[in-house]
Amino acid sequence: MPNSYTSNSLLTLLWNANGLKNHTTELLLTLQEKRIDIVLISETHFTSNSYVNFPGYDSYRANHPDNTAHAGAAIYIKSSLKYIPLPNFISDDIQSCAISLILDNIPITFAAVYCPPKHKISPARFTEIFSTLNNNYIIGGDLNAKHQQWGCRASNPRGNSLLQSLPSTNSTVIAPPNYTYWPNSRRKMPDILDIFVTKIPRNLHTQIFNLIDPCSDHSPVMLSLDCLPQAKANASALSQFPTDWDKFSTILSEKTCLKLRLKTPSDIDDAVNLLTTNIQTSVWDSAKPVPLHVKPSPHLPSYIRTLISQKRRARVIWQRTRYPIDKSLYNALTQKLKRLLANLKSESYANYISSLTGMDGSLWKATRKLLRIHNSPPTLRNADGSWALSEQSQANIFANHLSNTFQPHHNIISPTKIQEVESYLNSPLPMYPPPRAFTPGEVEFNLKKNSPKKSPGFDLISTEVVKHLPRKTIIFLTQIYNAMLRLSYFPILWKYSIIILIPKPKKPPDCPSSYRPISLLPTLSKQFEKLFLKRILPIVDEAKILPDSQFGFRNSHSTIHQIHRLVDKISFALEEKLYCTGAFLDVSQAFDRVWHSGLLYKLKPILPSHYYLILKSYLEDRFFSVRVGSSFSSPTEIKAGVPRGAVIAPLLFNLYISDQPTSPHTLVGDFADDKAILTTSPDPVLASSYIQDHLFSLESWYKTWGVKMNETKSIHGTFALRQGVCPTLYLNNQPLPPAQCVRYLGILIDRRLTWKPHIINKTRTLNDRFRLLRPLLTSKHMKPSNKLLLYKLLLRPIWTYGIQLWGAAKISNINRIQRFQSKTLRTILKAPFYVSNHTLHTDLKIPFVSELAKTHYKRFNNRLAHHKNPLISDLSSASIPGNPVKKIKRQWCRDLLA
């Protein structure tokens, strides 16, 4: 093969692997030797539970719809390239997966296709496939379409169909100069089956070559294009090089001036802009360039390289002569090479596993690779139904969606209420003494406490940078913070956020609402919020604004406290043979739709005027841009909602919903926007009427303050030992769907409070996590101490959540978790059958599940009596609140104290 392609060529490898898992090592060697950018694979033989990944490459696959190990197609593309994945085309006769790249400012689709030979494919069917791949495309695969037009020995009906479909789509076939199919049977003749079907601009020059390696019953083909796609941008950071922090502090101190005028809001904006610029330029000026480290390719021993050369020579001879003796020699060399490569890979993996340790972080890096969920780039459609093929268009789609989301529900708020709120907000404010100023020591202490893992905002000033700010700059930052307090003004630059989107699990990828927005705010802005929060929290606590039933985002309040209250209520009902029924409500876009005017209406009578005004400035004129890859949408205004990612946002939300109506007949449990309402009664009709009356009052409150409920996701749950049915509950005239088991704050609560559904669910989760960690936990090369550490930190926390409550379940249910723990410990130590579970737990100093449940509840109960919230301190009672007579043979969580 002439080496006529250059380093500026895009190299695409096409190969029918006839089962890729059997050829992974060979393909990996070819990828490294040939610098392949894109790999199009036919006949992967993958299922939903099998796949192959290669380091440095992203993978997309289209398996056969019957989910058995045959047929299928896959694409591997370098992770460093910028691309957009497209939806798969999967049917019995065709399996195709595709991506889109920008080449010479033109989006071009690359698709891997496999067409099994037994199906009849018409020209219209080929046209249908090509029409799904946008205007320009390169399709590569084994189509089982032969025609003399592209060099085949003979034509077949599918080749005729393909040829007839080409003029209507303006496509052409690019075939290799030599055969690609080498049948093992001497009754069959070699032929060309692996081809490219292309529709690309004429200025893109292509060359096609046959390759020898890797090999199955097909030989690979390489297509070279004389252009390169865009590379992904580097991770967002001020500098890609290490920073000399001493030099940084010196430079920044010299640039910092403490005599700036801070008398007006524009002065504050100018000062923030100057500070941001000084920090950024100081980081750039103090960067320490280091030589570019190129990761070396894996070095193969000389005896393996020699064997590879011999195998290639034997393959060429057999393809030329087709003699059985040459085939036998080629097969023998192939099998010998496979064995040697497998041994080399096994030795390398053993050395890697044995070197892992928790001291240098290598163990956790390895587990992250196993547990990390690979988030593919988004796949979105434009308004006209076409695919968004660039990061910029996707960013704009997300921005339009979020712009509609960050709006108040004006359609459910009455005009009278809006007028009342606006009138009150325009009324004069009372006089208050000036606020207490921040001190440089207070600011410096706050800066040092930052977590280094927090992502920076648009200015790229990270927590690592602010930890190294010199004293002079800290004083200047303190002056800015105090000017913000004095003038009740929040700078405009610190109200601009960058939003990235993470796909939600099991949601359609082409819908913008299937992605969860994550807001990145400037670090210095969040530092002010932390200081400001310390000033207003005592005011809120002293005024007792937040109801005791609200446990969300409050110090010393946890989800277990709230669930414990609900469990006590249910336990009382079961002991007294009552009906306990409840509504578990879901708020639609709770944090994103907060009505700003309504929030200020509630803040105005609570806070001193200077704090109220700074929050008013904080909520006004906020903007965001969506980042997809390295592209940004244009800035868009936020007209509702508490700022995502902001330190003060949870408190603002809690204050907004703090005046929800209550009822003397119901128990309310709030955790931010998760709301549970329970009541008990011997009469199921009366129990439902209590909840329904409470829901009617909540409906009125929700409409008044523009809070929209999601009736389809809200649940009606009943807990009782009796067989009666509580009447249906309604919210906004919509029936709440009933459920025998309710999920609340991550805990499954069943009708009879047996905890069996929750424990079964946790067992499934544990088994799934164990399967992911199996390569490490079952490796004979890893130290048992490291395996035990993985169990304690990555597996045990899954089932210990809520053990203070479900730890009182029947022993038959507890044993489900106990069996998992025993099997895992036996796997870690590879203990033989005659070693008892008691010996395993004793030697490893791992308590049994029942013992751990008692330990956790005792520790939890010891902290309840002196809690400042009376609803939590009441949980410390020795018996269930209400002191019911024990009538059923059931163990409750308080029995764990015995």
User: Which strand order spans the largest sheet, edge to edge or round the barrel?
Assistant: 3-4-2-1-12-11
What characteristic shape results from the CA principal axes?
globular
Structure class: alpha+beta
Q: Could you tell me the strand content as a percent range?
A: 15-25%
How many β strands by DSSP? 26
End-to-end distance: 80 Å
Q: Uncertain spans, ≥5 residues at pLDDT below 50?
A: none
Largest sheet: 6 strands, mixed
Using only CA atoms, what is the Rg? 33 Å
Helix content: 25-40%
Average pLDDT level: 90
Q: Please, how many helices?
A: 26
Structural write-up:
The chain is of the alpha+beta class and 898 residues long. Helix content is 40%, strand content 15%. It is built from 26 helices and 26 strands. The strands form 6 sheets. Strands 3-4-2-1-12-11 form a 6-stranded mixed sheet, with no helix packed on it. Helix 2 packs across helix 3 (157-169). It is globular, with a radius of gyration of 33 Å.
Short description:
The chain has 898 residues and is an alpha+beta fold. Helix content is 40%, strand content 15%.
